[in-house]
Specification:
The chain has 182 residues and is mainly α. The chain has one domain. 66% of the residues lie in helices and 0% in strands. Helix 1 runs antiparallel to helix 4. The longest helix has 51 residues.
């Protein structure tokens, strides 16, 4: 009986065109997965920035209501606002300068030696700062088809948050408030 060649000892021929096509397909799939992961992470960061800006607004609204008297509640709300703002700075390191101006205002208001009686119209300004920050980070929702608080849909390719003009307006209001009490 003659030795029959085993299936493992056979040689297979693959054309160069087939090999190139398989390699291109693998590269396209890997690039697509990499792009999708980056896109998902970007959208998660945008949604986190919007949530933190909303938290900051809530705390600044309470600060605006509590401002006439420097109470423990006011100091606590300023601390919460500072925490939200620092988280926003971590998420959006590219816009530290305007965000730090708002942080400086919060730190000035927290200072026990600062007299808040000079803030006659500062209440409205503090209220507006919070709302402008939310508008700056939530402005991208105006460009999407789904107006969702969780952020834009995956296929959104419009401008990235924040709207720098609105954020700068908030920072300028913060500088004005700081100048009134400082």
């Amino acid at each position: 009986m003659a030795n029959k060649p085993s299936r493992l000892s056979r040689t297979f021929c693959v054309s160069l065109k087939q090999l190139v096509a398989v390699l291109l397909l693998v590269m396209i799939i890997v690039a697509g997965v990499f792009w999708a992961v980056q896109r998902i992470n970007t959208h998660k960061r945008w949604a986190s920035m919007l949530r933190e800006s909303q938290r900051l607004r809530s705390h600044l609204d309470r600060v605006a209501c509590l401002l006439p008297v420097k109470s423990n509640w006011l100091i606590a709300e300023l601390g919460y606002a500072a925490s939200s703002l620092l988280e926003l700075i971590k998420l959006d390191g590219e816009h530290q300068i305007p965000l730090r101006k708002i942080d400086q205002m919060i730190m000035t208001l927290r200072d026990p030696n600062v007299d808040l009686s000079g803030l006659d119209s500062g209440y409205d300004a503090i209220h507006n700062i919070g709302w402008k920050v939310v508008k700056a980070y939530g402005n991208l929702l105006n460009y999407t088809s789904v107006n969702d608080v969780n952020g834009p849909p995956f296929w959104y390719f419009g401008p990235a948050p924040p709207d720098e003009g609105i954020l700068e307006e908030a920072a300028q209001l913060a500088v004005n408030v700081t100048a009134k009490v400082g």
